[in-house]
User: Fold these one by one.
Assistant:
Number 1:
Amino acid sequence: MGILDNVLRGRRDDAELGKGLWRRAHDRFQRGLDRYHQVLEGVDDDVLYAELVVIADGLAGLLPRVRAVCVMCQRLAPSDGFDVPGDYADVHRALSKAGNALATTAEAAAMLSLAIGPVPVGALSVQRRAATVVEQVETAERAVSL
């Protein structure tokens, strides 16, 4: 059943997100989120793990919002290529920054999980990077609602 689910999900994604710019923005965000969760699986410290899980939950809550922005953009400015429609450059920029920030959030979590001994400030560096992800998603939402 897993293969059929993947095919159906791919078709739904093609219909809602297209195969171009907006699909790439969504998929990049999802890959960053997957990477963060992969890092989370390797954390041995229970206290750090608990902090990182709270951040992971917040980031996972952003995925439907990113999808909604990308679906709306695909509806308003369909894309099957990589050219950014001029009126939607701000939305695309914010989505790109959100994807980049999510990747650096996963990287910060990975570096933190490799720390030897107690970490005096906990997951503060990861929280700051996650806040940037939230900011950029909010910026994309505002830009698309114009």
Number 2:
Amino acid sequence: MRHWTEGFDDGDADEQLVRPYTITSGRTTPERSDLTLVTLVGTLPEVTTQAALAVRRMQPEHRTILGLCRDPKAVVEVAAKLGLPVSLTKILIGDLVDSGHMWARSPQPLSRAGGLSDMTILEAVRDGLRKL
């Protein structure tokens, strides 16, 4: 996919801002607060013919995101592969999650594999650093 700034004259910064604005239908901030840089996103299997028709009517960026996220990826990875700003990518992913085409999951916190509390881990790191 081409980067949205390709083909613009480098001297006109105002024109570069038009394309992302139109991709998001004028929205400049994501509506979903749960989408962070490391939020994992993936596509849901299409269950109906209506869902397949809805995908065809989407913007090319939405369809590209669906193709990229067949295997779960972090939001920041999707933005990098699209060559779009992260804030814009969050808006597009939010659209797809809200429409039922994708899922989003915050990364799991550090697991307590050995049953250690967070404070125990921090103390172990602190003690290790002191020994250096």
Number 3:
Amino acid sequence: MSKNAKVAAGGVAAGLFLLIWLPWWAALLIVLGVPAAAYLTLDPSQRRRLRRVTRKELGR
């Protein structure tokens, strides 16, 4: 199993766990808010690098 697949499986498991224990709107805020907050903490140069890498992988 690749690293990305492990991360995706962990994210799905965490999302399902949150949906069971929290109201759906709170789980949605956490699932969407954590990656958004992590992206916003990056430097502008790191954001450009992340976008460039993502575009390259889409063209594969």
